[in-house]
Amino acid sequence: MSRDPGATAASVELLVLDVDGVMTDGRLWFGPDGEALKPFHVRDGFGIKRLRAAGLEVAVISGRRSAAVDRRMGELGVAHVMQGVEEKDVALRELLGRLGIAGARAACLVDDVPDLPLMRAVGLPAAVADAHPDVLAAARHVTRLAGGSGAVREFCDWLLAARGATP
Q1: Would you say residue 80 lies in a domain?
Q2: Which of 65, 75, 119, 123 lies at a CB distance of 3.0 to 4.6 Å from 84, suitable for a disulfide?
Q3: What does pTM read for this prediction?
Q4: What distances in angstroms separate CA 12 from CA 20, 75, 104, 162, 164, one per listed residue?
């Protein structure tokens, strides 16, 4: 569902993703040695690769730290991975400055209340279907799929379609 994103989707140069609740279903699993295990949807990975191939930057800004995130983002070639971030909007502004991209040309896909400042810092704030009600209210686009269930791929495909790309 979109709330009048207009031509904004076609002008996006950077997609910022949250991890827990967006790239995963939000549950935390721990291995026998206490390491965090995160199940990532492979379709999301393909969507990220397609965005990168189309020339878009992709970044991850997460409040938690996880070696699993570093590994998966490394596999996908995502160079901008910021973890353990409390003020996601501040991290985003620093990244935008380094990349020379205006906030209006950035999109984010998020799920929970700590992401609201990040949503206000981008031109196209989006939420996964099972996001917190306040996040859904602030979103200009809401995926049909829940976090961890292919929502990232759905959003990537939607951004690419706005640019005229076909599957």
Answers
A1: yes
A2: 65
A3: 0.92
A4: 23, 23, 8, 10, 13
